[in-house]
Design goal:
With 277 residues, the chain is α+β, with helices and mostly antiparallel strands. The protein has 9 helices and 11 strands. It is elongated, with a radius of gyration of 21 Å.
Length: 277
Amino acid sequence: GSSSKTPTTTATDTTATTKGLADLIVGCEGRDSQLRSLIGSQTIERNYEQHGFVVSVELEAMDDGNVCCFQNFFLDGSIVGFLPTGPTTANIVYSQPSRSIKQLLGASTPDIIKVLNSKLNRLAPNDIPLITGIVGDGSQRAMGAFPLRLSVATTPYAPRALLIGDAAHAVHPMAGQGLNMGLYDVAALTDTLLQARHRGVDLGSATAVGVPVATAMLQHTAPMIAAMEFIKGANVGLPVVSILGMKTLDALSPVKSVMMSVASGDHLRSCLLYTSP
């Protein structure tokens, strides 16, 4: 990736801006964070040249329930993620080349359902529920699209300001790991603030709070981002390699264990077990 240009404001601006308002301002307002621009944090960017088509769908009831997530990779470079939200509902993220997104957004509901079922239910009808409709069908269909890109702040902190979640590290929506990493950020921030308060340290200190939180974030985001970039890069450059890549990761027990710990939340539970110093 390449670094973006430094915004016109500098990190020192936040000290004056937040004086008398708060000890610490936490920016978690997404990949287009205004706070990130204010503190002047440079970013590592990568444009995937894809859009994520997001839609909430209605499903045919399954005998054993709707309790599994699915992620399907295709030889054309597209990826479809399926996330259950209720007994007969789910959210779907369909990543595809940006040039194709307008056609899908303008398609009729039956056509969209047909496309999605061809990517999901038709491949595993006994496991993946059949899509029967779109939530809010009509003029207010629950769907939309957004450009996909990697955006990681190189220094996600400044005096009295800190970035977490997508504001600090926006990633491809693969397997929903952006949410998990955001939860880890909250755990790291909570633990650091508790320790800082116990020691009587200024909660707005970039040294005592910003650096430790950024270090903790890096420990749980770097392995996941690296793994997702490897899989995503393979899927875009040579899609068949992504399948081999998944098999390779499955065979690498230490790497697989770390990814499963982060993805499942086991590592998060250990982060939340705070012991007062």
